[in-house]
Amino acid sequence: MALLFALVIDPATSDDPRSDFADTFRVIDPSAPALSVGELSTQRGDGIFESIGVVDGHAQETQAHLERLAHSARICDLAAPHLEQWRQAVDAAAQHAPRHGEGVIKLILSRGVEHGPAPTAWVTVAAAADNTAVREHGIRVVTLDRGYGIDTPAKAPWLLLGAKTLSYAVNMAAIREAKRRGADDAVFVTSDGFVLEAPTASLILRIDGRFVTPAPNGGILHGTTQLSLFAHLEEEGHDTGYATLPTSALTDADAAWLVSSVRLAAPITAIDGSVMPVDAELTASFNRYLLSPRD
Ligand code: PLP
């Protein structure tokens, strides 16, 4: 999607006492070159990002995204982002999102230019793709080996597994492999047989009437959509929880979804070729909730 708006942020240190950060933002032409060729984000994927869904001009779950940006920065040894500065950048960007319909605001924080003075940070706005059909008709998934064990994230923190880094080439390759296998998307599993997440979404299973998702114990991202949906389900009187789920949980489930900030809730119609029933009414209610203004 063509970008509608972009601004570069001069990152403040986390103890900056200012309350107005407008003069740290520089609006740029989103179609013109803007980054230095020395950028470590482009050379090494060395940086982090967030994708925030926007509905009718309202940025969804901004705080949860900012907290995850800070979490990713900690894992990657990047300077802590000034969350109020980023919140104001999101507000400025949201002014340029479509007034009606869906958009996406991306926040990017890079380690910056090699030997340069500071990290580089920018925000973009685009219209979102139309995900109506996938929310209604669902997606077929295949399980793919993520190539590490359930205890790897704790043993090897330098793999940055719980951070939303800019290095998404592996995630994109997994989606291409899923398509080669006749599916629409993938669900990563550990090499010792536990369920993780999709390349760009969290997995939710319904097992015996309870909604469960793999515990974000370092190996996966903690999805803001899953968090928000679980809070909503709890409010509606449902039971939810985190668990270390063996791959057998995929066959124990009587309904399953991939959830993420822009596509929202996509019901899974098949896992590795086995049909998964779709609870169409519940899925529609999930997406109604996810499309309502959420802070
Ligand atoms: N897991 C991965 C690897 C992702 O890339 C994403 C979103 O892009 C998610 C989970 C879902 O996160 P969220 O609901 O915050 O979009």
TrEMBL record:
Signal peptide as annotated in the record: none
Note one Pfam family from the annotation.
Aminotran_4
Domain of life of the source? Bacteria
Q: What are the GO MF terms of this UniProt record?
A: 4-amino-4-deoxychorismate lyase activity
The answer, when asked if Hydrolase is one of the entry's keywords, is no
InterPro entries for the chain: Aminotrans_IV, Aminotransferase-like, BCAT-like_C, BCAT-like_N, Class-IV_PLP-Dep_Aminotrnsfr
Q: What class of enzyme is it?
A: lyase
Q: Which UniProt keywords apply?
A: Lyase
Q: Which regions span the lipid bilayer? A: none
The lineage is: Bacteria, Bacillati, Actinomycetota, Actinomycetes, Micrococcales
Protein's UniProt name: Aminodeoxychorismate lyase
Q: What is its EC number?
A: 4.1.3.38
Tell me the organism: Microbacterium psychrotolerans
Family statement: Belongs to the class-IV pyridoxal-phosphate-dependent aminotransferase family.
